[in-house]
TrEMBL record:
Domain of life: Bacteria
Keyword Ion transport (UniProt): no
Pfam family, one: Pentapeptide
Record's protein name: Pentapeptide repeat-containing protein
Keyword ATP-binding annotated: no
Origin species: Dongia soli
UniProt xrefs under Gene3D superfamilies: E3 ubiquitin-protein ligase SopA
Alphabetic keyword roster: Signal
Signal peptide: 1-22
SUPFAM superfamilies given in the database record: Pentapeptide repeat-like (SSF141571)
């Protein structure tokens, strides 16, 4: 069943990603580059297309992947701790975003990785329809400021992550197959930063959001049902239609009583 799901996912990716750039390196060449990285400094794979490669279980810790294309790559169990995945500015000043569209990230470790300005859309986060705790990725202390996000982070460890200014609002003009939105349900987002983020219609069911920072964020129609929001700060946030059914709001700031 798992192999069929993987095949279906890859087929969907190929059919609906016409702009996919072919990988510039083979998986073997990537492994060689990682193996020959200088001690204390990760491999330099900046600006490379690694699209569609099987990169499971590889050690990308501290690697430079700025401006890289990882669309459709299988990063399951990959170690990306401290990796540089920021958007690259080329000599012609063109902004090149790191792409993780349709990437497989089950059990991947992005602890303290820098994904500022990256694109994380339609990530593959489970073998089946539901996310399981043993498949959750880790983004503890990661920086995703300004990233473009439309994916599921259910059950992920995102403690202290910087998600300030992320663009994660649902596009209500394109919802013919049901509401497609960013989903942080049951994720551990304690002390995470969402200040000035765009999170309209985002889902935070039963998420752990103690001391989370939502100052100035657009939370229109976001759903915090059952979320733990002790000490969270909503000062200046847009809260039109926002749901807090069953949420724990002890000492939360910026909410009109």
């Amino acid at each position: 069943m798992g192999s069929l799901l993987r095949l279906a996912g890859l087929l969907f990716f190929c059919l609906f990603s016409p702009g996919l750039q072919a990988a510039e390196l083979t998986a073997a060449e990537v492994r060689a580059a990682l193996a020959h990285a200088t001690a204390g400094q990760g491999a330099d794979l900046s600006g490379k297309s690694l699209a569609g490669l099987d990169l499971q279980n590889l050690d990308f810790s501290k690697a430079n992947l700025s401006g890289a294309d990882l669309s459709g790559a299988n990063l399951s169990n990959a170690d990306l701790r401290g990796a540089n995945l920021v958007s690259a500015n080329l000599t012609d000043a063109k902004l090149v975003r790191v792409k993780l569209n349709f990437a497989w990230i089950m059990r991947a470790n992005f602890t303290r990785a820098d994904l500022s300005g990256a694109i994380l859309e339609t990530l593959v986060v489970s073998q089946g329809m539901e996310t399981r705790s043993e498949e959750a990725a880790i983004f503890a202390g990661a920086k995703l400021a300004g990233a473009r996000i439309m994916a599921r982070f259910s059950l992920d460890d995102m403690r202290g992550a910087d998600l300030s200014g992320i663009m994660a609002s649902a596009d209500m003009r394109n919802q013919s197959m049901g509401l497609i939105r960013a989903d942080f349900s049951q994720a551990n987002l304690e002390a995470a930063h969402f200040d000035n983020a765009f999170l309209a219609y985002a889902k935070f069911h039963f998420a752990k959001l103690q001391k989370a920072d939502f100052r100035g964020a657009d939370l229109s129609h976001a759903d915090f049902t059952g979320a733990y929001l002790i000490g969270a700060d909503f000062t200046g946030a847009k809260l039109a239609g926002t749901k807090f059914d069953g949420a724990v709001l002890t000492d939360a700031k910026g909410l009109r009583q």
